[in-house]
Amino acid sequence: MASSTMALVILSLLVVFLGSSSAQLSTSYYSKTCPNVFSAVKSTVQSAISNERRMGASLLRLHFHDCFVNGCDGSILLDDTSSFTGEKTAVPNNRSARGFEVVDNIKSAVEKVCPGVVSCADILAIAARDSVVTLGGPTWNVKLGRRDARTASRSAANNNIPPPTSNLNRLISSFSSKGLSVKDMVALSGSHTIGQARCTSFRARIYNEANIDSSFARTRQSNCPRTNGSGDNNLAPLDLQTPTAFNNDYYQNLINRRGLLHSDQQLFNGGSTDSQVRAYYNNPSSFNADFAAAMIKMGDVSPLTGSRGEVRKNCRRVN
Ligand code: HEM
Ligand SMILES: *[C@@H]1O[C@H](CO)[C@@H](O)[C@H](O)[C@H]1NC(C)=O
Ligand SMILES: *[C@@H]1O[C@H](CO)[C@@H](O)[C@H](O)[C@H]1NC(C)=O
Question: Catalytic center at which residues (predicted)?
Answer without folding.
Answer: 65 (proton acceptor)
